[in-house]
Design brief:
This protein is an all-alpha fold. Helices cover about 65% and strands about 0% of the residues. The longest helix has about 35 residues.
């Protein structure tokens, strides 16, 4: 017996909503991980060493600055 006819044709569906959702989740994961790592570094240096609050704050700011430079979207790069 033949199956029911379907209007679905592979590769013809508009996937812009799925693509934007994927990009949102990946962006939240990327930037959230960076800020979580910087927060953990600042708290670890502040409370677990003799360096204190300012050293923790400075190290977190440096990690955020370098991470922002590394993780930002490149213009003119290949789209994946």
């Amino acid at each position: 017996m033949a199956g029911p006819a379907s209007d679905y044709h592979r590769g013809e569906m508009d996937i812009s909503e799925q693509r934007s959702t994927y990009n949102l989740i990946m962006g939240m994961t990327k930037w959230g991980s960076l800020y979580l790592a910087a927060t953990l570094l600042a708290l670890t240096i502040w409370f677990c060493t003799e360096a204190g609050f300012m050293a923790g704050l400075i190290s977190a700011v440096v990690v955020i600055a370098i991470g922002t430079l590394v993780l930002r979207d490149k213009k003119g790069g290949a789209a994946h």
